[in-house]
Amino acid sequence: QVQLVESGGGSVQPGGSLKLSCVASGYTSTDYCMAWFRQAPGKEREGIASISSNLGATSYRNSVRDRFTISLDKDKKTLHLQMNSLKPEDSGMYYCAAAPDGSWSQRFSPRIYNYWGQGTQVIVSP
Question: Which of 24-28, 57-61, 108-112 has the lowest mean pLDDT?
């Protein structure tokens, strides 16, 4: 079965950087959407960045644009999120998600994603 495993989270100072990774296994689809979602305690899960394997397109939430970069290594089936200039409001649990046959127009809608990782925590504080 498909499994997504995130890693790379941790605690950093404001202005610091982290690189998150998501390794997929049991996943053979060639046309799919993948994304990073973030959830803070007591708040809804929100899309941070997404990438389309067939369109070659990326999309970012406005609050992270120019600071975060999403990338996909198809050969290693690994999704990455490079996070720079981190702010306290970036804190939360980060989840990797995959959507075979997902609609690009709905890339930031959690309900289109079939598979989810368990999450990796990011804490940005003084």
Answer: 24-28
